[in-house]
Amino acid sequence: MNPLVSVAVFGTQAALMMVDELHFHRRRRLPRWERIGHPLDTATVLVCYGTALTLAPGPGALRFYLAAAIGSCLFVTKDEFVHAKLCDPAEHWLHAVLFLLHPVVLTLVALLWTEGGHGPLLAVQGMVTLAFGLYQTVYWNRPWKQPSFER
Fold first, then answer.
1. Taking Cα atoms as reference points, which of 32, 16, 19, 13 lies closest to residue 147?
2. Phi and psi of 123, rounded to 5°?
3. What is the CA 141 to chain-centroid distance, rounded?
4. What is the pLDDT of residues 8-52, one digit of tens each?
5. What separation, in Å, do the N-terminal and C-terminal C-alpha atoms of the chain show?
6. Torsion angle (degrees, nearest 10) of CA 120, 139, 43, 18
Protein backbone atom coordinates (compact mmCIF):
# COMPACT_ATOMS: atom_id res chain seq x y z
CA MET A 1 0.00 0.00 0.00
CA ASN A 2 1.37 3.37 -0.98
CA PRO A 3 1.55 5.55 2.14
CA LEU A 4 0.76 8.64 0.04
CA VAL A 5 -2.64 7.19 -0.81
CA SER A 6 -3.23 6.64 2.90
CA VAL A 7 -2.22 10.20 3.74
CA ALA A 8 -4.53 11.53 1.00
CA VAL A 9 -7.51 9.53 2.29
CA PHE A 10 -6.82 10.36 5.93
CA GLY A 11 -6.20 14.00 5.03
CA THR A 12 -9.42 14.28 3.05
CA GLN A 13 -11.44 12.87 5.93
CA ALA A 14 -9.68 15.18 8.42
CA ALA A 15 -10.26 18.26 6.25
CA LEU A 16 -13.96 17.49 5.88
CA MET A 17 -14.27 16.81 9.61
CA MET A 18 -12.72 20.21 10.28
CA VAL A 19 -15.23 21.91 7.98
CA ASP A 20 -18.04 20.14 9.83
CA GLU A 21 -16.61 20.99 13.23
CA LEU A 22 -15.32 24.52 12.69
CA HIS A 23 -18.02 25.78 10.34
CA PHE A 24 -21.26 23.87 10.79
CA HIS A 25 -21.07 22.89 14.46
CA ARG A 26 -19.95 26.31 15.60
CA ARG A 27 -22.63 27.98 13.51
CA ARG A 28 -25.38 26.17 15.38
CA ARG A 29 -25.67 25.13 19.03
CA LEU A 30 -25.01 21.43 19.52
CA PRO A 31 -27.68 19.80 21.64
CA ARG A 32 -26.61 17.58 24.51
CA TRP A 33 -27.16 14.45 22.40
CA GLU A 34 -24.52 15.57 19.90
CA ARG A 35 -22.14 16.95 22.52
CA ILE A 36 -22.02 13.46 24.02
CA GLY A 37 -22.49 11.47 20.83
CA HIS A 38 -19.74 12.96 18.70
CA PRO A 39 -16.93 12.02 21.11
CA LEU A 40 -18.48 8.54 21.30
CA ASP A 41 -18.32 8.34 17.49
CA THR A 42 -14.63 9.12 17.73
CA ALA A 43 -14.21 6.47 20.43
CA THR A 44 -15.58 3.80 18.08
CA VAL A 45 -12.89 4.72 15.57
CA LEU A 46 -10.24 4.63 18.30
CA VAL A 47 -11.22 1.02 19.06
CA CYS A 48 -10.31 0.19 15.46
CA TYR A 49 -6.97 2.02 15.66
CA GLY A 50 -6.25 0.46 19.03
CA THR A 51 -6.89 -3.00 17.62
CA ALA A 52 -4.59 -2.39 14.67
CA LEU A 53 -1.87 -0.99 16.91
CA THR A 54 -1.94 -3.60 19.66
CA LEU A 55 -2.91 -6.92 18.10
CA ALA A 56 -1.27 -9.09 15.47
CA PRO A 57 -3.60 -9.48 12.48
CA GLY A 58 -4.62 -13.10 13.13
CA PRO A 59 -8.08 -14.58 12.45
CA GLY A 60 -9.55 -13.63 15.85
CA ALA A 61 -8.15 -10.11 15.74
CA LEU A 62 -9.43 -9.64 12.19
CA ARG A 63 -12.92 -10.78 13.20
CA PHE A 64 -12.85 -8.38 16.14
CA TYR A 65 -11.65 -5.53 13.91
CA LEU A 66 -14.36 -6.26 11.34
CA ALA A 67 -17.04 -6.22 14.06
CA ALA A 68 -15.63 -2.98 15.51
CA ALA A 69 -15.45 -1.34 12.07
CA ILE A 70 -19.00 -2.34 11.13
CA GLY A 71 -20.20 -1.19 14.54
CA SER A 72 -18.45 2.15 14.07
CA CYS A 73 -19.95 2.63 10.61
CA LEU A 74 -23.43 2.03 12.01
CA PHE A 75 -22.87 4.00 15.21
CA VAL A 76 -21.84 7.23 13.48
CA THR A 77 -25.24 7.41 11.77
CA LYS A 78 -27.12 7.58 15.09
CA ASP A 79 -27.35 11.39 15.05
CA GLU A 80 -29.11 11.64 11.71
CA PHE A 81 -32.52 11.80 13.39
CA VAL A 82 -31.33 14.88 15.27
CA HIS A 83 -29.51 16.24 12.23
CA ALA A 84 -32.69 15.97 10.14
CA LYS A 85 -34.19 18.72 12.30
CA LEU A 86 -31.13 20.90 12.91
CA CYS A 87 -28.90 20.87 9.83
CA ASP A 88 -29.09 22.75 6.57
CA PRO A 89 -28.68 20.94 3.22
CA ALA A 90 -24.95 21.70 2.96
CA GLU A 91 -24.26 20.08 6.33
CA HIS A 92 -26.38 17.06 5.33
CA TRP A 93 -24.34 16.71 2.15
CA LEU A 94 -21.08 16.92 4.08
CA HIS A 95 -22.31 14.23 6.48
CA ALA A 96 -23.18 12.01 3.51
CA VAL A 97 -19.65 12.37 2.15
CA LEU A 98 -18.21 11.62 5.60
CA PHE A 99 -20.43 8.52 5.85
CA LEU A 100 -19.01 7.35 2.52
CA LEU A 101 -15.44 7.96 3.68
CA HIS A 102 -15.85 6.28 7.07
CA PRO A 103 -15.74 2.66 5.83
CA VAL A 104 -13.04 3.58 3.31
CA VAL A 105 -10.82 4.89 6.12
CA LEU A 106 -11.47 1.86 8.32
CA THR A 107 -10.79 -0.51 5.41
CA LEU A 108 -7.56 1.36 4.71
CA VAL A 109 -6.54 1.00 8.36
CA ALA A 110 -7.19 -2.75 8.11
CA LEU A 111 -5.13 -3.02 4.91
CA LEU A 112 -2.22 -1.11 6.42
CA TRP A 113 -2.42 -3.25 9.56
CA THR A 114 -2.49 -6.57 7.73
CA GLU A 115 0.24 -5.53 5.31
CA GLY A 116 2.52 -4.64 8.19
CA GLY A 117 5.23 -2.02 8.39
CA HIS A 118 2.81 0.89 8.74
CA GLY A 119 2.72 1.11 12.53
CA PRO A 120 4.09 4.66 12.68
CA LEU A 121 1.49 5.94 10.20
CA LEU A 122 -1.31 4.19 12.10
CA ALA A 123 0.05 5.49 15.41
CA VAL A 124 0.11 9.09 14.16
CA GLN A 125 -3.39 8.76 12.75
CA GLY A 126 -4.58 7.20 16.00
CA MET A 127 -3.03 10.03 18.03
CA VAL A 128 -4.64 12.66 15.79
CA THR A 129 -7.99 10.90 16.23
CA LEU A 130 -7.50 10.73 20.00
CA ALA A 131 -6.63 14.45 20.10
CA PHE A 132 -9.75 15.26 18.10
CA GLY A 133 -11.88 13.17 20.47
CA LEU A 134 -10.42 14.96 23.48
CA TYR A 135 -11.06 18.32 21.82
CA GLN A 136 -14.69 17.33 21.13
CA THR A 137 -15.20 16.23 24.71
CA VAL A 138 -13.62 19.27 26.33
CA TYR A 139 -14.79 22.00 23.93
CA TRP A 140 -18.43 20.93 23.69
CA ASN A 141 -18.87 19.73 27.27
CA ARG A 142 -16.75 22.10 29.32
CA PRO A 143 -18.73 22.88 32.46
CA TRP A 144 -17.02 26.19 33.23
CA LYS A 145 -18.24 28.01 30.11
CA GLN A 146 -20.58 27.17 27.28
CA PRO A 147 -19.06 27.64 23.81
CA SER A 148 -19.90 30.90 22.12
CA PHE A 149 -21.87 30.62 18.90
CA GLU A 150 -22.09 32.91 15.94
CA ARG A 151 -24.91 33.01 13.46
1. 32
2. -65, -45
3. 18
4. 999 999 999 999 999 999 998 889 999 999 999 999 999 999 999
5. 43
6. -60
Residues 6 or more apart in contact with residue 119 via CB below 8 angstroms = 53
Is 149's pLDDT higher than 70?
Answer: no
pLDDT score of 151: 39
Q: What is the chain's alpha carbon radius of gyration, rounded to the nearest angstrom?
A: 16
Judge contact between 83 and 92, C-beta under 8 A: yes
136, 138, 144, 150 alpha-carbon torsion, rounded to 10°: -30
Task: Tell how far CA 4 is from the center of its chain.
Answer: 20
For the chain, the average pLDDT equals 93
Q: Domain-by-domain residue ranges, the chain?
A: 3-140
Alpha carbon distance 9, 46 (integer Å): 17
Give 50's DSSP letter.
H
